[in-house]
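Re: your question about dTDP-glucose 4,6-dehydratase

S., sorry for the slow reply, the queue was backed up all week. Below is exactly what I fed in.
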Amino acid sequence: MNILVTGGAGFIGSAVVRHIIQNTTHNVLNVDKLTYAGNLESLASVADNERYQFSQTDICNREQLDQLFQEFKPHAVMHLAAESHVDRSITGSKDFIETNIIGTYQLLEAARQYWGGLDSTAQNTFRFHHISTDEVYGDLEGTDDLFLETTPYAPSSPYSASKASSDHLVRAWHRTYGLPVVITNCSNNYGPYHFPEKLIPLIILNALAGKPLPVYGNGEQIRDWLYVEDHARALYKVVTEAEVGETYNIGGHNEQKNIDVVKEICKLLEELAPNKPEGLNQYQDLITYVKDRPGHDLRYAIDAGKIERDLGWTPNESFETGLRKTVQWYLENTQWVEHVQSGAYQNWLQTQYK
Ligand code: NAD
Ligand code: DAU
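Result:
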C-alpha cells in the first residue's frame, strides 16, 4: 500500500509513520507543513528508509495536494495534521479554523477528485481515515459515563469545535459523495516525542529544570491517558481493517486526575533523576496551582469496547508502565528536547504562564 500521512512530523503522526515503516512493507508519504509542532528529528529512525518520503506542504494548499495525490497514488490517507493545543486555541483560534476546518476541507476535495478517477476496485478499497479527538464530545463532569461513538457532540474550546467541524465534513463527504471514510476519536496521548507544551512533557522538563509545575485550577480534572504507540497500532488496524463509514473511539482505560499525574511524575523522577537542581528538596515542592483554563472540561473517559470487539485492539501499556517509559525517554533524549525548546517555544511559555 501507499499511505499518505498528514501531520507525520507531529507527536502522534511521527509514531504512526515509525510504526508503518518499521512493522509493515507499505510506502509512506508524510505531508506536513512543519509548524512549531512539526519536527523531522522525531523521524530520524526512518528518514533514510526507501519506503519513506516527506513533502513540506500546507494541507490548505489544494494545488500542491492535487499534485501529491497524482504522483504518490495513495491507497489510503491518514489525516492527522492539525493545530492540537487547547490553550493556544484559546489565545488565538485563527490557525485552528484554517488548518483543522479549511485544511480538512481541501484535503477531502483533493482526495475526492483523485478517488473519482480510480477504477471501481481501487475506489472500493481506498480509505480516507480522519484522526480526531474525544474532546468533540465535551465534558463528563460529575458523572460515571463514558464517551461512546454515539455520544452527541458538544465541544467546549475553539480547538475541539474545529475538530468537531472537521468530523462533520468528513461524514458529509461520505454520505453525499460516497468517499470511503473512517473516523477515530481518541483520548489523551502521552509518550516519546511529545511537544513540551502539553501537560506530561511540560511537567517532566520543568521539574528537571527546577521550575514551577503549573496545575490549572484545583487539579481535579480527569483525563483518560493512552500511550502513543498503542494509539499508532490502533490507527493502523482501523485504516487497514475497518469497514467504510465506521467510527471508533480509542482510549486507554486510564482515568487520572491531573494532580495525581503530576505527583506520579515527581515520584518517578525522585527514583530516576535523584540529582535535583540545587536547593530543591523534593520535586513535589515545585507544584504550583495557577489560573484555570477558561471553559476547562472536567472529565473525559472513553469506552473503547467497540474497537476491541470489532478489531481485537487493546492497549499494551498500563499508565504505570507507559509513564515510566516516557520519563526514561525524556531523561535519555536531551538533544531532541534541547532542539524543540526554541525561541518560539520560550515565547509561548512566557505568555501562557506569566
Ligand atoms: P501535533 O501538534 O503534535 O502535530 C501536528 C502536526 O501537524 C505537526 O507536525 C504540524 O507541523 C502539522 N500541521 C499543522 N498544521 C498543518 C498544515 N496546515 N498543513 C500540514 N501540516 C500541518 O499534534 P498531535 O498531538 O500529534 O495530534 C495529531 C492529531 O491527533 C490531531 O489531529 C489531533 O487533533 C489528534 N488527537 C490528538 C490527541 C493527543 O492527545 N495529542 C488525542 C486525540 C486526537
Ligand atoms: O483528549 C484528547 C486531547 O488531549 C487532544 O485532542 C489534544 O490535542 C491534546 O492536546 C489533549 O488535550 P488536553 O487539553 O487534555 O491536554 P493538555 O496536555 O494540554 O492538558 C491536560 C490536562 O492538564 C488538562 O486538564 C489541562 C491540564 N494542564 C495542562 C497544562 C499544559 C495543567 O493543569 N497545566 C498545564 O500547564
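The chain has a mean pLDDT of 97. The first helix runs from residue 11 to 23.

Happy to talk it through on Thursday.
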